[in-house]
Design brief:
The chain has twelve helices and no strands. It has helices at about 1-35, 40-45, 45-75, 80-100, 105-135, 135-155, 165-200, 205-210, 225-235, 240-270, 275-285, 290-305. Helix 1 (about 1-35) packs across helix 3, helix 3 (about 45-75) packs across helix 7 and helix 6 (about 135-155) packs across helix 7. It is globular. By secondary structure, it is mainly α.
Length: about 325
């Protein structure tokens, strides 16, 4: 009799958790459809509730939490494509990041696998749209790029940007759209992964001690060949130049993260106040020159190993 009572109670708790955390994820995801500028930034955190659910209930629990917002979107908004978008863009990433934290993967591995899963999901969405609208890949990409350009134009409408500057920016965005899309997924995975780990560590000091901080982020040395290949392609005529530009931006983004990790390690060594560290990060990510400098630091770390002089990695999150 006790076993027959315990099972429904346990199942009810699983369902309650799935609905609760799935609802949080749905609200964050829908923010992009409500406000055109702030919304996309808020929807960046849509995987976070599902990561917590996966940590609490495991991979199956995380999948159940993903099922609720999917059914809600299909049933109440009649938006099957948007429901699929939630599953493929954010759901897969959330499950991978949750499993990465539970299994103790290094941050680089969890983030890159989560990024590839989300990127594959977006690729499936593109293939689906090509079949659904009976259009070519480049025509579909042009439509998406035009939509993104309109959003950027609205944001920059109040600035003093000249027509020539806008034309140059528009050309760059068109040429580099695939890499910018990948980098947006990558940085979203980084933010969700380390934020989830940090919040989990607040209530679980033992788990926090086992987690490697962001300052330990390190790419394999042989990845430098990818950067070299992208530079060689960029020196060739079109269409190789365009492929080289996109690969170059991807690898610079990866080494930018490594440069930020080096900075985190050095900040900890110098015992800088938290407020000062936050200010320096915000300053760095708001200035193109400083972003390039961070990427060069990350690239140089492959040979110079700036962190070898820093204190041993601690559990303070970097």
């Amino acid at each position: 009799m006790e076993r027959s009572v315990a099972f429904p109670r346990s199942a009810a708790l699983w369902i309650a958790d799935s609905v609760l955390w799935g609802s949080f994820s749905l609200v964050l995801f829908q923010a992009a459809a409500v406000t055109p500028i702030v919304g996309p930034a808020i929807s960046l955190f849509a995987p976070l509730p599902l990561i917590f659910l996966s940590l609490r209930r495991g991979l199956v629990g995380g999948a159940l939490g993903l099922l609720f917002p999917f059914l809600f979107l299909v049933s109440f908004t009649s938006s099957f494509p948007r429901a699929i978008s939630l599953v493929l863009e954010f759901g897969g990433m959330a499950l991978v990041l949750g499993e990465g934290i539970r299994r103790g993967w290094r941050g680089e591995r969890a983030v890159l696998v989560g990024t590839l899963v989300a990127g594959s999901g977006i690729a499936l969405l593109l293939i689906s749209d090509i079949w659904r609208f009976q259009v070519g890949l480049f025509h579909l990409l042009d439509r998406q790029i035009a939509s993104r350009l309109q959003e950027v134009r609205e944001i920059l409408a109040k600035t003093a940007l000249s027509t020539a500057s806008w034309d140059a920016l528009e050309h760059f965005l068109v040429q580099s759209y695939p890499s910018l899309l990948f980098l947006s997924i990558l940085f979203g995975a980084v933010v969700n992964y380390y934020l989830a780990r940090y919040i989990r560590g607040l209530g679980n000091p033992e788990a926090r001690k086992k987690d490697l901080p962001f300052s330990s982020w390190s790419l394999p040395e042989y990845w430098i060949w990818g950067l070299i290949l992208s530079l060689l392609l960029y020196l060739l005529p079109e269409p190789y130049r365009r492929a080289g530009l996109n690969l170059l931006l991807v690898f610079l983004g990866l080494y930018l993260l490594q440069g930020a990790a080096v900075s985190s390690s050095l900040f900890r060594r110098w015992q800088l106040p938290t407020a000062l560290k936050v200010f320096l990060y915000l300053l760095s990510f708001s200035q193109p020159f400083l972003l390039l400098l961070l990427a060069l630091i990350g690239l140089s770390d492959v040979w110079l190993n700036f962190r070898k002089m820093a204190d041993p990695i601690s559990s303070d999150g970097g």
